[in-house]
């Protein structure tokens, strides 16, 4: 069985185990970021590589040691955050927010589609989530988020999460 396919720019994940390893797979990043122009491919790849670096950091449990370097590589100093769960701007504020996320060993969700318009990249992530209507089963939770790119780095972010609560972001599934 193929782990994933990409059809019409959207990744379809066939093997549930792939959700745990996507962040280590350069072939996945390359295939998902492929676009007709170098500029669009570069913007998509920036966002995928950022999400993969964050996922590897969270899984390693080395947030304190790695977050500043990752954010310096991918984020502008005066980063603007538009997410009610991260109420502040700037790279330092974002780093502090990552240091407060509980580490559970749960793999962050993979990107499955990216749409680029001018300097904006809309990222769609996917995560299997417990189905409240069918105990013991899951459904596909799709998580949209948008980044603005400036000078080859992420300059602004809009998140779709609800404020607070167990379902506020792409953390571990509720028990």
Q: Which labels suit this protein?
A:
175 residues, alpha+beta, Nuclear Transport Factor 2, Chain: A, 5-stranded mixed sheet, two-stranded antiparallel sheet, 4 helices, 30% helix, disordered C terminus
Topology:
Layout: E1 4-7, E2 10-13, H1 26-33, H2 38-60, H3 63-74, E3 75-82, H4 91-99, E4 111-117, E5 120-130, E6 138-150, E7 153-159
Parallel strand pairs: 3-7
Antiparallel strand pairs: 1-2, 4-5, 5-6, 6-7
Helix pairs in contact: 1-2, 2-3, 3-4
What does this structure look like?
The protein is an alpha+beta fold and 175 residues long. The protein has one domain: Roll (Nuclear Transport Factor 2, Chain: A), CATH 3.10.450.50. The protein is 30% helix and 31% strand. It has 4 helices and 7 strands, in the order E-E-H-H-H-E-H-E-E-E-E. The strands form 2 sheets. It has a 5-stranded mixed beta sheet. A hairpin with a 2-residue loop joins strand 4 and strand 5. The longest helix has 23 residues, at 38-60. The model is unreliable at 170-174 (pLDDT under 50).
Write a short abstract of this structure.
The chain has 175 residues and is an alpha+beta fold. It is built from four helices and seven strands; from the N terminus they run ββαααβαββββ. The protein has one domain: Nuclear Transport Factor 2, Chain: A (Roll), CATH 3.10.450.
């Amino acid at each position: 069985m193929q782990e994933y396919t990409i059809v019409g720019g959207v990744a379809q994940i066939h093997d549930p185990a792939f959700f745990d390893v996507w962040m280590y797979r350069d072939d996945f990043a390359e295939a998902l970021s492929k676009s007709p122009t170098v500029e669009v491919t570069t913007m998509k790849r920036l966002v995928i590589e950022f999400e993969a670096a964050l996922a590897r950091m969270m899984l390693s449990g080395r947030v304190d040691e790695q977050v500043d370097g990752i954010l310096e590589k991918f984020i502008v100093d005066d980063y603007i955050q538009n997410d009610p769960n991260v109420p502040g701007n700037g790279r330092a504020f974002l780093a502090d927010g990552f240091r407060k996320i509980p580490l559970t060993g749960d793999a962050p969700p993979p990107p499955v589609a990216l749409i680029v318009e001018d300097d904006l990249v809309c990222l769609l992530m996917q995560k299997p989530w417990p189905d409240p209507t069918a105990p013991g089963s899951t459904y596909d939770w799709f998580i949209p988020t948008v980044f603005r790119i400036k000078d080859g780095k992420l300059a602004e972010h809009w998140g779709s999460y609800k404020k607070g609560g167990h379902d506020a972001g792409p953390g571990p599934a509720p028990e």
